[in-house]
Amino acid sequence: MGVHVGACVLFLFQLSSLVLGEVLPLPPFDVTQKDLQQKLSLGNINLDVPALYVFGDSFVDAGNNNYLKTKAKADHPPYGSDFGGKATGRNTNGRLAVDFIAKVAGLPYAPPALGMSEADKKNTVTGVNYASASSGVLPEPPQMEALMGDVLSFDEQIALFEKTTENLKSQFSTQNMSKSLFFIHSASNDFGLVWMLANKDHFTPEAYASYVADELSKRLQKLYALGARKFLVNNVSPLGCQPYNIMQQKPTTACVEEMNQRITAYNKLLPKVLSNLQSKLHGSTFVLGDLYKIFEDVVASPDSYGFTNVKDACCFTDLGKGTVICTPQSVPCQDRNAHVYYDPFHPTERMHLIWATRLLKDSSVVSPMTLVQLLQA
């Protein structure tokens, strides 16, 4: 899905009139479900979604890493500068895509699993967030653990979800679980740090893409066995266009093409992986979110989405020169709504809003149905 960003920026600019651009003002922090649906032009929709379960990495981590011995934390200002001024562990200035989706569905934000009390674990039936920054589809290799510390692997996230199902057996029926949304954003770290640290000398890019796709399939089947039926699975965004990778590698093109090509090889495999799963797992629905294309469209036509800066981190320190996460001493830019990236790796709240909105209603980046249609199915 998608084409290489750096090589095709000019072509995409020429086609920008065909790109679905929508300048979305950020809704108030206390926006209601109906007001948000109206602001996103979703129409008069009724959704019956009992719960939202979130798995993945730092793009969707709501604070699990706050409770782990890891360097991959966003538990300090200026993270959360637009989340009531509170750093919750979200790797951005405000809300995440999954927060907006929860609000549209009439659900509270899914709490981080590791921050829940024993009472909460037995009584929270509206969903849980298991995501962990720096995690991937594959188990964390020793080199990664030495660099980043302890994070929740996908397998560990699934194990936590299994405990959730055990805790809620008396309150949450199989039918309710089958109506719940399982939101997956993983594999980015497999194609970023894990590839560089542990796997580039052992796989060709194509073989590695196939390996990660197969491992993802196994884990999605585990979730199905535990009761999951409705899946939204995102592909990997163009990491070669992240400020960190641009600053580190200084490509002659707009982005680091070698990295984006590896990611594209994986992204091309996902449609068949999900289609095969749906054909053999009775009652399942797998929807693919093309996050690569969402970023690609914004890079191609930033003005049509209200952005003026697609390559620089909003949180920028002289020490890191755009290559480290926001430090407690750093001050974020004033025009963060105009930036795609908040820190060298992670999108701003406004980019999260665009991600959520396009998944909800734009069939050009989500297939075989929109997220609203999946939630209504």
Automatic annotation (TrEMBL):
Residues 1-21 form the signal peptide. One of its GO terms (cellular component) is extracellular region. It holds the Pfam family Lipase_GDSL. Gene3D superfamilies: SGNH hydrolase (3.40.50.1110). The keyword Transcription does not apply. Keywords: Hydrolase, Lipid degradation, Lipid metabolism, Secreted, Signal. PANTHER family: GDSL ESTERASE_LIPASE 7-LIKE (PTHR45650:SF24), GDSL-LIKE LIPASE/ACYLHYDROLASE-RELATED (PTHR45650). This is GDSL esterase/lipase. The lineage of its organism: Eukaryota, Viridiplantae, Streptophyta, Embryophyta, Tracheophyta.
